[in-house]
Structures are given as C-alpha cells and as structure tokens.
Design goal:
The chain is an alpha+beta fold and 486 residues long. The chain has three domains: 2-167, no CATH class; 225-351, no CATH class; 359-448, no CATH class. It is built from 19 helices and 15 strands. The model is unreliable at 449-458 (pLDDT under 50).
Length: 486
C-alpha cells in the first residue's frame, strides 16, 4: 500500500478500496481496487504495456523469469490436467489457456486483451512446456520487489469498475446443507440466518488468528456519506411489530439529515453557500442529537444521495433541486424562485431552467397529428409517458385528447370516448411497470371492456369494398377461420 499510495507505482492514487479474504486452504489474499487521478489514468495500449505484462520475462533477466515461472503460472488445466479444480464442463473457469494476442486491445466488453505473442518462448512446469497463454498478468516491478503472486489488471470502463466494487465485498464462499431424518413431509424447515452462520461457517486457524487479533480485514481511502431524501413528514421510520404508533411519534420530533440541513441554514450563515450534497465535507451529522456540527478534521468524503427514478416525478425533481440550490431553510423555501413559492418541485425546476418544459413534446404531438390517425397518436402519447417523463402529463393529455379521441367521438359520447383512450394508455404502461396514476393521468373506469373497442374499430363492412379489396379481405378471413378451427 505504501508503494501504491505514497510512491505512486501506477501513478497518483486518489482512492483505494481493498478486502482481505481467505482461501479454502486457509491462505489469505487481498482484492484491491485502485483509482488514479485523471492525468495518470491508463487509456492507451502503450500505457497498458508499460504497467501490465502477460508474457514470460526475458531470458536475459533470469531472476524475474524464475519468479514468473514459480509464481505467475496458472495451475495447469485443460488438456494438461482435465481434472483440475478450475475445470467446469471441460472448460477453465478462468479462461486459461488464453488466446495469443499480437497487440494489446484496450476495450473488449470493458476489459483489455493483453499482448501474448506466439514467439515460441516457453518454460518447463513439471513435465509440460508452458507458454504465455497460461501466464497471469503481472507488474514487473511488484513481482521483483515482493517475490509474491500479485495479479495486476487494468479496467477502463464503468461496467468493469462496478463489477469490481461488488466483487471485493462478495463475502466468503460457503455451502449450507441440512439433513432431515424425519420423513414427515409436513415438517417445515426453519431457517435461522444467525444460527446457520455460526454452525456452517468453517474458520481456518489463520483467519481465526487474524480476527482474534483484530486485524483489519478491509479498508477504503474515503468515507461514504449517504444523505436522506424524502418529502415533508415522509421520512423512513423503523419499528418493531406492534410499536408503530410509538415509533411514528418518536420520529415526528427527530430530524433527518435533510431537515437538519434546513435548520442549519437557518442558524448558520456560513453553511448557506454549500449545497446539500457538499455539506458533509464541512459538517458532521451527529446521530445522537440529529444535528450538523462543524467538522474540525479533514476527511476524504464521498457523498451519495438516495436516488429517485424519473417516473416518481416530484421526488426526482426534489433531488434535482437539492443538487442545484443552496441555503434552503425548508421544503417550501426550496421551491421558492424569485420570491414566489411555486406549487410543485417540478415547477421550480422548470423556472430555474433545470428542466425543459413540455413544449417540445407538444410540438411533436401537433406535428404528428397532421399525418397520423388518432390510434397512432394514442400509441405515441403512451410512449411519451413511458420514455420521456413529461413534466405535466395531465396538461399534455388535456391539450391533445380531442385529437387522440377524434375517431372515438364519432361512435361514442364524450365520457365513453375519454375512458377508452386511458384504457389503452394504462395497458401500455402496465406492461412496463407503470400506471396512469404515476403521471396524474385520468385512470380508466371499470365497466367498459377495452377489448370491445378493439373489436369494433377493427370491424370492416365487406359491402363497401371493391373487388381487389374484397379478395384480400376474404383471403385473410378464411385464413383466420382456418386457424381457429385447427
């Protein structure tokens, strides 16, 4: 860690996270994720080749070559040893032997392919000659310095970094097995997670020693703050069964990080220039008093706010305001722009030009109405609600419902026509986990079957068809009837 963080083996390090794990044989190893500053990020093939090698060390460096042979060769598998522990269904889980690669390729599904040239170079491992295809990638300096197996990989995409963050905290591997000698099928097995953890986890002496000695098993360079996000009096409340009323009463008088931030801005003028997301860098949240107090020592902080999906429009826009508005003293003050309190957080975002309004969507519908039939407009409106998240879907509906229901108004009265269209919109939204209510759209009234509308608008009067149309119509109807009879 000293060489990586302080002596900058790979470049200036801005963040590090690591976890120590124990193999099934009891040996410990460390998974480490290193993030470099922008100037030192590894982006090109030449930079990768300067840091990572996947080829056998040169014969002109016998010391390094011996270390590579001894420490960095993947346990022989494949045709050399089909019964190796890494083999599953005839293939190595670690993808060895690798393919030859004349030049390093930077990004293949988020991972680089290191240079492994077919130059005829090999070393003898046991009775087999092994080339670079079985070599685990390494850094020459670290291998020579520590004489230990240190696998070095370069990750250049967000996709792979996200996977590594999950991997380092994946936990120990274990298997739980329970034998039930009672043949009574009605006997239900009770799963006690704590009991199973104690009974089924085997701890090797080396791991036991480390834990009894209180050695740190993980570490990270930054402290992560997660900030609350909620509406007025809608914060999360945790309670034991039967104690809901007491927990609600207790939470009513207790501030969250968000409400405490409002109070901090009321009492401390120095805090007002800071956004909610930046406040942990300068203040510490005291969980006993539920207040923000000034920070007296510097810490590396990463702040996260609970996410909000766009379909939950008001919470999504509340979060957006908290990211762009500083010094707010209340929820009402947060949605006050130019001295005027606006009805919703969405309106405040629009007034602050944090969001575009629905003018573009309105223009798109108006343009489509010139050449599209009402049924197509209905589908288009449903897609807008699904993918574009309009700021005021109800207003958009009211402005365009006369165009969307134009053909229905010729067959039904206004109330029925305006109920059929929401049926279709709701059906499309339901297929994607949404409802009309999420967009404040009128919900369809039960009692008018949507399928009746589909059947009626598809009904064709054969008497009004010409000869060519009638031939096509009869062919289609006969084919459908044949399928039904089959």
């Amino acid at each position: 860690m000293i060489h990586i963080k302080d002596r900058h083996v790979f470049g200036v390090t801005i963040a590090v996270i690591h976890v120590i794990e124990f193999q099934k044989r009891g040996l410990q190893h460390c998974h480490m994720l290193i993030m470099l500053r922008a100037e030192d990020k590894i982006r090109t093939e030449e930079q990768i080749d300067n840091i990572v090698s996947a080829e056998l060390p040169s014969e002109h460096d016998p010391e390094l070559r011996q270390l590579g042979k001894k420490l960095m060769i993947h346990g022989l598998c494949g045709t050399f040893n089909p019964n190796s522990i890494c083999m599953v269904e005839g293939e190595c889980q670690k993808k060895f032997p690798m393919s030859y690669q004349e030049e390093t390729i930077t990004n293949v599904s988020g991972y680089p392919l290191y240079r492994r040239r077919n130059n005829g170079d090999s070393v003898r491992v046991g009775v087999h000659e092994v080339d670079c295809r079985f070599l685990v990638s390494y850094n020459e300096y670290l291998l020579r310095k520590y004489g230990a197996h240190i696998n070095v990989e370069v990750r250049i995409s967000v996709k792979s970094v996200k996977y590594l963050f999950k991997y380092v905290y994946k936990g120990h591997g274990c298997a739980i097995m329970e034998m039930n000698i009672n043949n009574n099928e009605s006997n239900e097995l009770e799963y006690n997670e704590i009991k199973q953890y104690i009974l089924c986890r085997y701890v090797f002496p080396s791991e036991a020693f480390c834990r009894l000695s209180e050695y740190k098993m993980d570490g990270q360079s930054h402290t992560v703050y997660r900030l609350a996000l909620h509406f007025f009096d809608e914060q999360q409340v945790y309670y034991r069964p039967g104690e809901q009323r007491q927990a609600a009463g207790h939470a009513e008088g207790r501030d969250t990080q968000l409400t405490s931030w409002f109070k901090l801005n009321q009492s401390d003028v120095d805090a007002r220039p800071y956004f909610y997301i930046d406040i942990p860098e300068y203040y510490v949240f005291n969980k006993q008093s539920n207040t923000w107090t000034r920070r007296h020592c510097y810490r590396q902080i990463v702040t996260r706010m609970y996410s909000a999906i766009p379909r939950n429009a008001e919470k999504f826009h509340l979060r957006m305001l908290l990211l762009h508005v500083s010094g707010s003293t209340s929820f009402d003050d947060l949605k006050t722009v130019g001295g005027k309190e606006l009805p919703t957080f969405s309106d405040a975002c629009i007034r602050l030009q944090l969001l575009e309004d629905d003018n573009e969507l309105q223009m798109a519908l108006s343009e489509a109405a010139v050449y599209q039939i009402p049924r197509q407009l209905l589908n288009m409106f449903a897609m807008i609600c699904l993918f574009n998240t309009p700021q005021n879907a109800l207003q958009l509906w009211n402005d365009n419902k006369h165009l969307i229901t134009e053909d229905l108004l010729r067959q039904y009265d206004n109330n029925i026509a305006e109920n059929i269209a929401p049926h279709h919109i709701n059906m499309v939204l339901n297929e994607n986990g949404m409802t009309c209510a999420m967009h404040d759209l009128p919900e369809p009234i039960n009692g008018f079957p949507f399928i009746q509308y589909v059947e009626e608008i598809q009904e064709v009067n054969p008497e009004v068809l010409n000869i060519g149309q009638r031939n096509v119509f009869d062919s289609v109807i006969n084919a459908v009837n044949a399928i039904d009879r089959a």
